[in-house]
Amino acid sequence: MSINNHTHTETFIIGLLTASTAILQIIAVEGRSIWVDENYSLLFASRPMPELISLVMDYDVHPPTYYIFLRLWTQLFGHSELSLRSLSILFGTLTIPVFYLLAREFFARRGAFLSTGLVALSPYLIEMAGMIRMYSLLVLVTIASYYTFIRLLDTWSRQWQLLYFLSSMVLVYTHIMGLTVIAAQTVQAFARLWRTQSAEEARTLFTTDLGLGVVFLPWVFVVLNQASKLAEKPQRPLPGVTDFFGLQLTLTGGYPAFGVFGILSAVGIGGWIMRRYCGENFSNVSGNLMRDLSTNEGTISMAVVWFSVPIVLQFGFAYIIPRTFDYRHMIMSIVPLFLLVTFGAITLSDDDLLPVRTDAVFVVLVCLLVGVSVLGISAGYASDPHPDWEEGVTYVDNRAPSGAAVAFDSSLIQSQFTYYSDRGTEFELYGYPESSPLIRGQKSWPGIGSVDAESDEVWFLASHASNEREFMSTMNDTHALAEKRNFDGLIVYRFVEENTSQPAVFR
C-alpha cells in the first residue's frame, strides 16, 4: 500500500474516532443538571476578566486558565447549558487526534489505533467532557505536554523546547495537579541526564524547567494561602487501599473493564520485565532501567512512570491536606493506563508467545476491550449521580407564591436556582446559615422572625450540605413542615405557618 493510502486510512480512522467521541459526549450531557462544583465555573466566568482572576485567587486553588476560556466562550455563544458544556466537549474531542500523535511515538499504526480507540470509548473521559470544569482541558494539555516532551528528547531543537514550555505552562495553569505530570517528566529527564552526562541536554532541560518555575511562581503564593484555608476546614478521612482500587474502577469505567484492563496492563509490564531484565540481562538491572527511562522514544517504562507518579503524589498530598484528595485530580493517569493496556494486547499477540495466529488474538482482544468499554458507557448513561436541579427548581417555580422566602443549605447553590428559575426575582433568597460573597446581593438567613417576605411560606433547598436538621429546628416554633420532595438528591422542603392547616406531603 502506498504512503498516500496509509495517510488516507489514518485520517479516516482518526476522523471517525473523533466524530464518534463528540457524539458520545453530546449524548452523555443530555438531561444533566448543573451541579455544585460547576457553580464555581459559572460564577467566575460571569465576571469581568480582572474580577474573575481576583475571585479565583481568593476562592480557588486551581489557576484560572479554564475560567478565562469559558468567559471568552460564553461571550461568543451565550450561557445555555449546551453552550457551557460544549467548551469541555470541544476539548474532549480534540483529545483524540492529539493523543494519536502521542500514541505513534509508542506504537506502530495498529497499536496507536487501539490505544486511541480506548481513549475515544473511555466512559470516564466521556463523563468528564460533559462537565463545566477544567478536566477535559487538563487531559488535552497533559497529552500535548507529553508529546512535545518526547519530541524534545528526540530532537533537542529550540522549536520543540518552546512548544514543550508553552504546553506545560498551560498545563500547570489549568490545574494545580498538572505539577505532578511535570514531576513524572522530570524523573525521566534526570534518568536521561544520568546516562548521557550531556551538558547541552542538561542546559536545555534546566532552562525549560526554570522558566516553568518562574512563570508558575506567582501562583505558588495563592496555593499556600488556599492550603492554609483548607487546613482549617473539617478534614476528610485519609485515603487508603480502598481508595486506590476505587480510583482504578473510576478510571476504567466499572468492574468488567477494571478486570480486563488490569490483566492486560500486568501482561504488558510483565512481558517488558521478562524481556529486559531476566536471563542474560538480569545482572544489569539498573543499567537497563536507566536506558529504558532515558530513551527518546515512548516506552512502557515511560507509561509506568506517567501513570504512577501523579497517583503517588496525590495520595501523599492528601496526608498533608486531606481535603485535596479527589479522583478527578488524578485523571491525567488515565492516558498512560490506555498505553499500558495496549502494550499488554501487543504482548499477547507476540508471535513468539502463542502458537496461534497473532492477528486473530489481537482481534479478539480488541473486541473484548471495545465490549467492556461500551458496557461502561452504557452504565454511565443509565446513572446520573447529580441532583436534578432543573426539575426541582421548576417545581418551586410552579408552586411557590410571589414573595415566598427561599433558603439554600449552601449559599453557593443559589446560583443554580437562579439559573433554572424563571421567577427568581419574585422570591426572597437567603443563604443558610450565611451569605456568600460570590453571590451578588445575597442575604444571610436572619432567622424566621426577621424574614421580610410577603408570603407565609418558606422553602428550603438542600443539595450537598448537612444543614437540613438545623434549619428545621429553627422553623419548629412558628412553621410546620408541609412538604418534602426528593429530586434525585435535591431535597425541597416547604414550610407554612402553624395556624395554616395543610396536610403534609412527603415524596
Indicate the proportion of strand residues.
5-15%
Tell me the domain tally: 2
Q: Give the helix tally.
A: 20
Structural class: alpha/beta
- Span of the ends, CA to CA: 65 Å
Biggest sheet: strands, sense, closure? Answer: 7 strands, mixed
What proportion of the residues is helical, as a percent range? 55-70%
- The string of secondary-structure elements, in order, is HHHHHHHHHHHHHHHHHHEHEEEHEEE
User: How many beta strands in the DSSP annotation?
Assistant: 7
**Please, what is the average pLDDT?**
86
Ranges with pLDDT <50 over ≥5 residues?
none
The Cα radius of gyration reads 26 Å
Instruction: Describe the strand arrangement of the main beta sheet, using strand numbers.
Output: 3-2-1-4-6-5-7
Main location: membrane
GO cellular component, one term: plasma membrane
Transmembrane segments: 12-29, 82-103, 132-150, 162-184, 204-224, 245-274, 300-321, 330-348, 360-382
Subcellular location: Cell membrane
Keywords:
seven-stranded mixed sheet, 20 helices, globular, 507 residues, 2 domains, 7% strand
Structure overview:
- This protein is of the alpha/beta class.
- The protein folds into two domains: 3-226 and 239-382, no CATH class; 389-506.
- The chain contains 20 helices and seven strands.
- The chain has helices spanning 3-28, 36-45, 49-59, 65-77, 81-103, 109-120, 123-128, 135-155, 158-172, 178-196, 199-232, 241-252, 255-277, 285-293, 300-320, 334-348, 358-382, 389-399, 414-420, 468-475, and strands at residues 405-408, 428-431, 443-444, 458-462, 479-487, 490-497, 505-506.
- Strands 3-2-1-4-6-5-7 form a seven-stranded mixed sheet, with helices on both faces.
- β5 and β6 form a beta hairpin.
- The longest helix is centred in the middle third of the chain and has 34 residues, at 199-232.
- The radius of gyration is 26 Å and the shape is globular.
- It starts with a helix and ends with a strand.
- The mean pLDDT is 86.
